[in-house]
Automatic annotation (TrEMBL), chain A:
Top-level taxon of the source organism: Bacteria
Keywords: Membrane, Transmembrane, Transmembrane helix
PANTHER family, alphabetized: INTEGRAL MEMBRANE PROTEIN-RELATED, MEMBRANE PROTEIN
Top-level taxonomy: Bacteria, Bacillati, Bacillota, Bacilli, Bacillales
One Pfam family of this chain: ABC2_membrane_4
Membrane as UniProt keyword: yes
UniProt-recorded name of the protein: ABC-2 type transport system permease protein
Membrane-traversing stretches: 21-41, 61-80, 101-125, 145-171, 178-197, 226-248
Automatic annotation (TrEMBL), chain B:
Domain ABC transporter stretches: 6-234
Protein name, as recorded: ABC-2 type transport system ATP-binding protein
InterPro entries in the record: AAA+_ATPase (IPR003593), ABC_transporter-like_ATP-bd (IPR003439), ABC_transporter-like_CS (IPR017871), P-loop_NTPase (IPR027417)
Pfam family, one: ABC_tran
Similarity comment text for this entry: Belongs to the ABC transporter superfamily.
Key words of the record: ATP-binding, Nucleotide-binding, Transport
Superkingdom classification of source: Bacteria
An annotated Gene Ontology molecular function: ATP binding
PANTHER family the record matches: ABC TRANSPORTER, ATP-BINDING PROTEIN
TrEMBL record, chain C:
InterPro entries: HATPase_C_sf, HATPase_dom, His_kinase_dom, HisK_dim/P_dom, HisK_dim/P_sf, HssS/ArlS-like, Sig_transdc_His_kin/Pase_MprB
Name of the protein in its database record: histidine kinase
Localization per record: Cell membrane
GO cellular component: plasma membrane
Transmembrane regions listed in the UniProt entry: 6-22
Length: 254, 307, 299
């Protein structure tokens, strides 16, 4: 397992697409952050109200469409590409359990995803504050809210990554993976805007990770709300991972 | 009795109602260079893919180094290096990095093995060149280096001569022989051209339409290819009945020009000639002769086609 | 305070985990080494690549395994070689001995005429001589090939030595009706060598040419890229590439059945002597001609 993790980490470190994406994510987010901080782009969101003006650009990074675009590209090139160029054959032949191979791939994929979607923006924000004094915090006690939001967001994002991995495993092609996941991201964005959805769809959507993903940063959350969010996130994560593992185990590698 | 490296018992694979492998019992022993021969689509790759865990059998047992349980097989696969179909490389990485991935994957301690393996296949001077810019021959050699990393005991090569020029084939053959002789490596190598394997294999398995028709040693193959009786008589069909009825030798073939090739009784020319003469046949020609490899293969495979 | 305590506990937990992991890895390595020396597996040690020291340990174990495998393989090979050598030797000795025994039996019969007796005796003598030479060569080869047989290298003028040896073979060339085409440079070529060993090499190579050459023979001595190179070239229609590859092997004869024409051990002795002088002896087949080259470094 350790060897598999090191292998995947080594591959990640040599993956050009990943570093390009990191660069793009950092530059794009830094640009937006500056624009918002200097007030050129008026943002009116909960961070302002909560006294965390510094983080007012964060909703951009956590918008499903934005991060799904990065993640699907990353998953496409990191997971599906292994199948396209056939190197997965060598990994499967190497005398490791398929479940371990799957898990190692997933862990490193999550690591890369977190770097792309969470670490990058946070580094830009804190870096901007420390180096240039960008943004301010009128109420530091609201940081607890941010931590809770981030925690929930991460769990739901994990479930999303698992889903992306499943798609990549089934599609075996980076292009298809990206298209399918972008379509999903589009659907979520549309669904969020169109709410309430008709009939059973609304209930389905309300208990999906997608809704909870967006809902993670709600200002006030009761304990039952938190439990619901957690159980939806973790439940989905486990189910999707189980499916992915099964799909990979059954797979005949071409 | 030599130690068995790979054994399959009743190995069967079906997909979409088609039988790709039909109760294959294959035995590769330690130190063999096992030539696995069959036409394209005969089931060679399917078998090799099951052995290397890329595909799963419908029924039957695979045993590697005496291990046939699930966990045991996974451990045993660490002792196997393989190239299935074509070598798969990371196109954006250098030769060294490609090997580093596989070193990490197999948990081989120390980076010394990378330089050693690259030197073995003659790729030590590729430097910063990315694998995507390699020539086909170099890609093949890097694939081989990956398979050889960590000194496996069984090397599986699936149609390794595909796409190689004659020079490359000779080079590969020499390397295979050297690995077998100097490092005692057991090698399972598949091809659809018998003569290509004939220069190196010590044992052969002939597969056709998913069935392993025959397993024989190099000596046995030579024997079979060498020895037969060429018979020409005035009435080939009557001769055929004499062969079957009186001599109990159904192992013959009638060539278009009426010549009969008898694959048994070649050491007993007297008995054959006497039986033929007794039936009133006039023998025009009767002599032992040799088959070349390719026609032997075609005959084995062709014979199966008709029954 | 509470932070410090929890940090300490966490740290302890991590160290404990690490200890457990290291112990587990040690057990795995130990099992693998055990399986290797019990002969259950020929696999080298693989590990979880996390700790540099464990990696170094496993790497060293693998070096040791390499050594063990190598020496085992060498032992098996020299075993096979020795057995082969003894088999070949007894074959080589048996043929003349059988002939001698056969002729002595004939001699023992009462009805032998005086002329016949003379003929048999001369055959016996010739065969015994050959046996004697062969045994002598066996001894010489084993001596030359042993590790403590050292040659004293000094500057030797190759041209003069070659002429000297060639002259000695004049009668035999005439007898075999061979007219060698000589191409020996006048420029004195001096190489770092042992004179008596060089003489022996020349004798053996020329002897080989005289025994086997059919048709044209060419001998040339020249300077090539700072080395002294001597080339023997003769037609050899029935030699194959494979024969040439084995030319210097101890017991290889191109055709086992024609034992009377066998090479003897001359070429093997020449090969060993050349290696002892840091020289090279190679053979190649070109357009049906056998080409034997010897090269020395110039001094």
């Amino acid at each position: 397992m350790i060897n598999l993790l090191r292998t995947e980490l080594f591959k990640l470190s040599k993956n050009k697409i990943f570093w390009t994406l990191i660069l793009i994510a950092t530059v794009v987010f830094a640009l937006l952050h500056i624009l918002i901080t200097i007030g050129w782009w008026k943002m009116d969101n909960l961070y302002m109200e909560a006294g965390l003006e510094l983080f007012s650009s964060l909703p951009l990074a956590t918008a499903p469409f934005y991060f799904m675009l990065f993640l699907s590209t990353f998953a496409g090139f990191f997971v599906a590409n292994d199948f396209t160029i056939g190197v997965v054959k060598n990994i499967v032949m190497s005398g490791n359990r398929r479940s371990h191979i799957f898990l190692a791939k997933f862990i490193v994929l999550v690591l890369g995803s977190v770097m792309l979607t969470v670490a990058c923006p946070l580094i830009v924000i804190t870096g901007g504050k420390l180096l240039f004094g960008f943004g301010e915090m009128t109420d530091p006690s609201a940081l607890g809210f941010l931590a809770r939001g981030m925690g929930l967001f991460l769990i739901h994002m994990l479930a999303c990554v698992a889903l992306l991995m499943l798609i990549a495993l089934l599609a075996e092609d980076s292009g298809k993976t990206i298209i399918i996941s972008v379509v999903i991201a589009l659907l979520i964005s549309v669904a969020e805007v169109l709410r309430p959805l008709p009939g059973i769809l609304d209930a389905l959507y309300r208990y999906s990770i997608f809704h909870h993903l967006i809902d993670s940063f709600r200002m006030v959350m009761t304990a039952p709300d938190m439990i619901q969010s957690l159980s939806v996130g973790l439940g989905t994560l486990l189910i999707v991972m189980w499916c992915g593992n099964l799909a990979f185990k059954r797979k005949e590698i071409k | 009795m030599k130690e068995s490296v790979l054994t399959t018992i009743g190995l069967t694979k079906k997909f979409k109602g088609q039988t790709a492998l039909d109760h294959v019992n294959l035995v590769v022993e330690k130190g063999d260079i096992y030539g696995f021969i069959g036409q394209n689509g005969a089931g060679k790759s399917t078998l090799l893919r099951i052995v290397t865990a890329l595909a799963r059998q419908t029924s039957g047992i695979v045993s590697l180094f005496g291990e046939s349980g699930e966990a045991g097989l996974i451990e045993a696969r660490k002792r196997v290096g393989a190239i299935i179909e074509s070598p798969t490389l990371y196109p954006d990485m250098t030769a060294r990095d490609n090997l580093e991935v596989h070193r990490l994957l197999r948990g081989i301690p120390g980076k010394a093995c990378i330089a050693k393996t690259l030197a073995l296949v003659g790729l030590q001077d590729t430097g910063k060149k990315k694998a995507r810019n390699f020539s086909l021959g170099m890609k093949q050699r890097l694939g081989l280096a990956i398979a050889l990393l960590g000194d496996p005991e069984l090397l599986i090569l699936d149609e390794p001569t595909n796409g190689l020029d004659p020079g490359g084939i000779v080079e590969l053959r020499e390397l295979v022989k050297r690995l077998n002789r100097e490092m005692g490596l057991t090698i399972l190598i598949s091809s659809h051209i018998l003569s290509e394997l004939h220069q190196m294999a010590t044992k052969y398995g002939i597969i056709h339409k998913g069935r392993l028709l025959e397993q024989l040693t190099h000596e046995q193959l030579n024997e079979k290819c060498k020895q037969h009786l060429r018979i020409r008589v005035d009435d080939p069909s009557q001769a055929a009945t004499v062969l079957e009825m009186e001599l109990g030798a159904p192992d013959y073939e009638v060539l278009p020009d009426g010549t009969i090739k008898l694959y048994s009784l070649y050491h007993d020319v007297r008995r054959v000639s006497m039986a033929l003469t007794r039936s009133g046949l006039v023998i025009e020609y009767l002599a032992p002769g040799g088959d070349d490899l390719e026609s032997y293969f075609t005959k084995r495979v062709g014979g199966e086609l008709h029954d | 305070m509470i932070y410090v305590t929890s940090a300490a506990v966490l740290l302890m937990f991590i160290f404990l985990l690490r200890l457990v992991w290291i112990k587990k890895e040690m057990r795995r390595i130990s099992t693998q080494v055990e399986r290797f020396y019990q002969g259950l597996s020929g696999k080298k040690v693989d590990i979880a690549l996390l700790d540099k020291d464990i990696e170094a340990l496993a790497g060293n174990i693998n070096q040791l395994i390499d050594l063990a495998v190598q020496s085992n393989r060498d032992r098996i090979r020299s075993d096979i070689e020795l057995r082969q050598a003894i088999a070949n030797m007894s074959h080589d000795l048996r043929t003349p001995l059988t002939a001698i025994i056969g002729y002595t039996k004939l001699l023992g019969a009462n009805s032998v005429t005086v002329e016949k007796r003379e003929e048999y005796l001369s055959i016996i003598r010739a065969t015994a001589d050959r046996l004697h030479t062969l045994l002598h060569e066996f001894f010489e080869l084993s001596l030359v090939q042993s590790a403590d047989y050292q040659l004293k290298l000094e500057p030797v003028q190759i041209n003069a030595l070659l002429w000297e040896v060639l002259t000695g073979f004049y009668d035999q060339f005439v007898e075999r009706r061979l007219e060698p085409e000589l191409n020996i440079t006048d420029e004195p070529l001096i190489a770092q060598a042992d004179p008596s060993a060089v003489r022996r090499v020349f004798e053996n190579l020329i002897g080989n040419v005289i025994r086997h050459a059919t048709g044209k023979v060419a001998i040339s001595l020249k300077q090539e890229e700072g080395n002294v190179v001597l080339i023997f070239r003769n037609e050899a229609a029935n030699l194959s590439e494979q024969d040439v590859d084995h030319l210097f092997d101890r017991f290889y004869t191109a055709d086992r059945s024609r034992s009377s024409r066998r090479t003897g051990l001359g070429l093997s002795i020449a090969y060993s002597l050349m290696s002892k002088m840091d020289g090279r002896l190679t053979a190649g087949l070109q357009d049906g001609c056998l080409e034997i080259r010897c090269g020395w470094n110039r001094s």
